[in-house]
Structures are given as structure tokens and as C-alpha cells.
Amino acid sequence: MDRNDALHLVGDVVVERADPFDPESRTVELPRPGGPAVPVADEDDPLVPPLGSGLRGWAERFGGVALRCGVPLSPVGLLAAVPTHFFVGRVDDTVVAAPALSDLLGGFALLLLPLMWLAFFTVSALPLVIGLAGTVGVAVYRATLGVPPRPAAVWRLVAYRLRALWLWFAAFGVITQALPLVLTTDRLGPAVAGPLAVGLTLVSTAVLTFTGVLGCVVLIERGNGRRRAAHLTSMMPLGGLIVASLAVTVLPRLAEAAWGGIASTVVSVPTVLLWAMAALVAYCQGRRAEGPVTSKSLYAALSAPELD
């Protein structure tokens, strides 16, 4: 083959893969030696459900993650248990404390109360932040390298993204925790108690479903997390993640009503971890609907240094 034939062959490849209707007349970019590897879809990937597998594929990967990562996630659960017990669901305690603060501090208590609420909203997001970040780090590491990670390895994978994740979760936490303070049966009347409880449960479940995918986007990708999460949620079956979000909303409240605050914490921690696993597998399924993605490519994205 002479030089002209070789050039003609390259030209054919470029023309065939380029877009003839591109107004800017751009050509396709061919792979270069030493460039980033393009992930090749693996139907047996331990994290990513096969393309088109639907809810069945999600359930299979979710069960596999729960079996592999249950024990390695024990330190994450213990760490999340502390803010769960002392802060989650305790926003209304600030209302109880307001009269005492008013007696001690006078009118200054009116300024202090919103700051107390803001602090509770911020700290109460910690269990979800710890649960999701720890689950993503452990599950991706285990699926890629095949061994349980040490806590330091998980920290290195997710540390750079924790601030952004915390800010997002704290902002959405205002919706799920402030609404019950504003919309109460004392203000709206006892007749709306049942519909109000159902409505608040649905809102909390919807917020947790969306923030689960959003959190995975913030941890693994860069860019506009909200728009990216909205796009991915339109490309995946959400039934499993909705059930996990509903469990986080309802089960701890039932446990607290029946057995008290400690029981609520005991129930909250595993349900949050299961919610995080459900969110990660759902996120992977949405990514697979877009194109090839593997556990190794997710691990590479987590391992990439944070850019200023």
C-alpha cells in the first residue's frame, strides 16, 4: 500500500464517523495513543446493571452490593449513628428551647432561634452525607479492586467532594425538615392531619429519591449537579430507589413512636446505607443508558484529582 492509499484509508474513517450536517464542519476525534481509555461495557459488572435490564437488573446489582459491602460499611454506619441520634428529627426541640432562651437572653433570642434552625438543618444532613459518600467509596473500591477498602482509602476517594455534597444535602434538608414546622395541624386544623402526613411523606420521599442521584453526581462527576441528576433520573427505573427513600422517611419514625429515640437511630442507620446503595446502583443504571460505563471508570473518576 503506497502513501496515497494510507491517507485515503484514514480519510475514509474520518468521513464515515463525522457528522455531515455539522454546521461547523467539525470532524471526529480519533483515539490517540496514551489518551484516556474509553470504557467498554461489561454485562457482568458488579455495579452497573446491563443495558435494558430494568428493575430486575437494578435489584440484582443492589443485592450484590448489599452482600459484598455490608460488613465493610460497618464503620460508616457507626460514624453516621452519632449525628443521627442527636440531631435528625430534633429541629422542633429548638422551638421548645425558645421560651427558656427568651428568659435568659431577652429579645436577642429571636435572632438566635433562626441560627439554631440553620445549625440543625446543616448538621442533620450529616447522616446522609456520611452514608452516601461512604457507600460510594466502599462499593466502587470493592467492585474495582475486589477487596474491602481501608477507611483511609475511602476518605481519599470522596474527601474532595464532601463539601459540595454537604451543601446540597443541607439545602434540600430545609425542605424536608422545615415544612413540618410550618405546616402543622395547629395551624391547618385537625381535619387535615391524615392528608398532611401523607403529603409530607411523599415530599420527603421525592426529595430523597432525587438527592440520592444528585449526591452520586456530585461525588463522581463535575458540572451542574442538579441538571445532570434530573437528566439521569429520566433515563432509569426509579422504583427501587423510591422504595428505599420511603423506608428512610417512614421506618425511623415508626420505630421512634413505638420504642423511642434509640430504636429510631438503630433503624435509621441501616436504612440510610441501603438508600445509598440503591442510589448508587440507580445512578450507574442511568449512566449505562447513556453509554458504556464500568466500575473501573467510576473508580478512575473518583481517583482523579480535584481541579480548582
From TrEMBL:
Transmembrane segments: 108-141, 162-183, 195-220, 232-251, 257-283
Highest taxon, organism lineage: Bacteria
Keyword Transmembrane attached: yes
Keywords from the named record: Membrane, Transmembrane, Transmembrane helix
UniProt-annotated stretches for the region Disordered: 22-43
Protein name (database record): Uncharacterized protein
Organism, scientific name: Paractinoplanes toevensis
